[in-house]
Design brief:
This protein has about 500 residues and is an alpha+beta fold. It folds into 4 domains: about 160 residues, Methyltransferase, Cobalt-precorrin-4 Transmethylase, Domain 2; about 70 residues, no CATH class; about 170 residues, 2-Layer Sandwich (Heat Shock Protein 90), CATH 3.30.565; about 70 residues, Orthogonal Bundle (Arc Repressor Mutant, subunit A). The strands form 8 sheets. It has a 6-stranded mixed β-sheet with strand order 14-13-17-18-20-19. Strands 1-2-6-5 form a 4-stranded mixed β-sheet. Strand 15 and strand 16 form a beta hairpin. Helix 9 packs antiparallel against helix 10 and helix 10 runs antiparallel to helix 13. The longest helix has 22 residues. The chain is elongated. The N and C termini lie far apart (about 60 Å). The relative contact order is 0.09.
Length: about 500
């Protein structure tokens, strides 16, 4: 059975946190069983973890040496793992795969957070009188729980994250095989090669996006969110609304755009719109410096992380969309509910947000595999770094005492004239596009790379302007890509 990620991704890091991966040189029943049990308990709702056999682990949890598993020991290790996991109570079995990397074989056991936790296993295998322990993970270590940890585990037993719950109103046929195949191909999963020939229910079980007995297998909410074309049918208002208020909140002009579909599609579509139509570049030339100064009204990296965080942490059982309001001097991103109560309002003001437990363990897992969000508890740092590198004001993160909403405000960078770039940039953008039209009217065969060089702007800026001019009916391309020409219409 295949895994929803690749051995290459696990060994290189950056997508799955090292704390969620345990490397073992050889099969060690005692230590490995504890690790699998701890991942299944998933006390912090991180999404479980992976046990990789055939790798020497360094003290910091990263791989030190890839030794692999001898081919003649593969079957023995797998049988031993099966027998050891039968000792876990309630019944739990990880998903395993024999993976090849750089000419060596590795055994990978994926242990997602279980739905019938807490799980326990013997403290000492082979001893009938051995006490059973509800092992948990703390950072990169497997430990015995404290009394408080045990209490948490039992509380979690009645609180499976919404995204990991079975949706009894949906059918397995509501999941799209093409969407699943596209995802598996993008993340480099070995399941991609098997998906077309596998039984569909087995494929969904392998990805942990469906559960239940064979006669009543149902999709999980996370499966519907990512692999249904209409997730809003089961989770109303699963969408991103972008509302533009170019004259401010008191103005008469309102432009609304709604993005629906699979979660990663709507996120990418909304980000693409913001990048193409809201984010603008300002170029300031100084007489005493050869190179021009370039910055943006909003750095894309900050907007991307802020919106991705909203998608990650939204409560999909609430009937509220994610709303992005674009005002003359700021962008506001509103989602529901608010921040976890472990994050105080005072800490938010100081950009400190370390959440003990995550609302959507599975949504975060898929977004990370698709490189749409950073590691856990790194979002604020990513946003701050992008804004400060651009010379933008610091953001504002807000929630209310009742934790009904979470609001992120990204302020526009002031231009060289001292006003928000959104105002100064509008005139600059309009003039740049007029200059582009004048140039293309004289040089209809010019490539966009040449246009970028002549106007002293980036190629991405030219691409964005061309798309806008086409939509406005002011420019069109005739003929083929290689032999065609530009036609200025207005």
């Amino acid at each position: 059975m295949g895994l929803p990620t690749s051995i290459k991704t696990l060994l290189r890091g950056g997508v799955v946190e090292w704390a969620r991966i345990e490397f073992k040189t050889t099969w060690d029943p005692q230590a490995s069983l504890k690790t699998i049990c701890a991942f299944a308990n998933d006390v912090d709702n991180w999404g479980g973890g992976y046990l990789v056999i055939g790798v020497v682990q360094q003290d910091d949890g990263t791989p030190a040496q890839l030794v692999g598993v001898p081919p003649e020991k593969i079957d023995t290790y797998l049988k031993n793992m099966l027998n050891a996991c039968k000792l876990i109570q309630p019944s739990y079995m990880p998903i395993t795969e024999v993976a090849e990397y750089e000419g060596k074989l590795f055994i990978v056991a994926w242990a997602p957070g279980g739905s019938t936790r807490p799980y326990s296993s013997p403290k000492h295998i082979g001893s009938k009188q051995s006490p059973r322990i509800h092992w948990i993970r703390r950072m990169a270590s497997t430990i015995e729980p404290t009394v408080e940890d045990e209490r948490d585990l039992y509380n979690l037993a009645n609180n499976v994250p919404f995204d990991d719950r079975v949706n009894h109103a949906a059918e397995l046929s509501d999941l799209s095989l093409p969407l699943i195949e596209s995802y598996l191909n993008e993340v480099g999963s070995s399941l991609y090669r098997e998906a077309a020939s596998m039984d569909f229910s087995e494929l969904c079980r392998s990805m942990n996006i469906a559960d239940g007995p064979d006669e009543y297998i149902k999709p999980k909410n996370v499966g519907l969110l990512f692999f249904s074309m209409t997730p809003e049918v089961w989770m109303p208002y699963t969408q991103i609304d972008i509302v533009e208020l170019p004259e401010g909140e008191a103005g008469d002009i309102i432009r609304e755009h709604t993005f629906k579909g699979p979660l990663h599609h709507q996120l990418r579509d909304a980000l693409r719109y913001l990048n193409n139509y809201i984010i603008v570049e300002e170029v300031v030339k100084h007489s005493d410096v050869a190179e021009a100064e370039r910055h943006f009204n909003y750095p894309y990296a900050a907007i991307e992380e802020a919106l991705s965080n909203a998608v990650y942490h939204k409560g999909y059982d609430s009937r509220e969309p994610i709303e992005v309001r674009v005002l003359p001097d700021r962008i506001e991103i509103l989602s529901h509910p608010g921040a976890d109560r472990s994050i105080s309002i005072e800490n938010l003001k100081q950009f400190r947000a370390v959440s003990r437990r995550y609302r959507n363990r599975r949504v975060g897992e898929f977004l990370k595999e698709l490189h749409l969000t950073e590691g856990r508890n790194t979002g604020f740092r990513t946003i701050l770094k992008a804004l400060r590198s651009n010379g933008s004001p610091d953001p504002l993160f807000e929630t209310d005492e009742s934790r009904i909403y979470f609001l992120t405000t990204i302020y526009a960078r002031k231009s060289s004239e001292g006003v928000p770039n959104t105002t100064a940039a509008t005139d600059e953008v309009n003039e740049r596009r007029r200059a582009m039209l004048r140039y293309l009217a004289k040089h209809p065969s010019a490539s966009l790379s040449v246009v970028a060089r002549e106007l002293d702007v980036s190629r991405s800026t030219v691409d964005r302007d061309v798309r806008t001019l086409k939509l406005e009916g002011r420019l069109r391309r005739t003929g083929s890509t290689s032999n065609g020409a530009w036609e200025v219409l207005a």
